[in-house]
Design a protein that fits this description.
By secondary structure, the chain is an alpha+beta fold. The chain has 3 helices and 6 strands. Strands 3-2-1-4-5-6 form a 6-stranded mixed beta sheet, with no helix packed on it.
């Protein structure tokens, strides 16, 4: 089916775009893990950071970092990643989705195809971010717990142990995410 090929091509484009960005994002993560890029909120010190939090938007493929203390309160300024770096990719996504939606039908096959595309896109992005973080962690040897979570999910990954954890969306550390 032609739509599927177009969607697979989008994921290939995403892989290529992320590969180019890997050194830049890895260096930004190194600066966070070393503390050089972190701006603390008033009355807090870098030594108060108990967890690093990386919350991402699947829709915009961007990440927001914030640090929390042992009580779960956000104690750092946010740091955003990938707000503008994927413009070419998103331009192509819009073009392809406009074309693909014209061919859309209401069949279960259509829904499965879109779901397969989205799952592959998420896997590509998650694996890429994990590899960037792992490389940065290896360089810094920072052992502060770090969490990677989708802004729309109650589950996340504790990056040091690579275990799935529940994220309490009622905590004040969780952000409303917009682009």
């Amino acid at each position: 089916m032609e739509q599927l090929k177009e969607l697979k091509d989008l994921n290939t484009l995403l892989k290529a775009a992320l590969a180019v960005l890997r050194p830049k994002i890895t260096e930004e993560l190194v600066q966070i893990l070393n503390g050089t890029a972190i701006m603390m909120l008033p009355t807090y010190e870098k030594g108060d950071i108990a967890t690093f939090n990386f919350e991402y938007s699947r829709e915009w493929l961007s990440v927001v970092f914030f640090g929390s203390n042992a009580r779960g309160l956000t104690i750092t300024e946010d740091i955003s990643f990938l707000r503008n770096e994927l413009k070419e990719y998103f331009s192509k996504v819009k073009e392809v989705m406009d074309m693909v939606e014209e061919m859309e039908d209401d069949t279960e096959e259509w829904e499965e195809m879109i779901e397969e595309y989205n799952e592959e896109k998420s896997s590509i992005y998650d694996n890429w971010f994990g590899a960037c973080w792992e490389e940065a962690q290896t360089q810094t040897q920072n052992r502060i717990p770090a969490y990677y979570s989708d802004n729309e999910s109650d589950l996340g990954i504790e990056l040091l142990s690579n275990t799935i954890v529940e994220i309490n969306k009622n905590q004040s550390i969780i952000r409303y995410y917009s682009n």
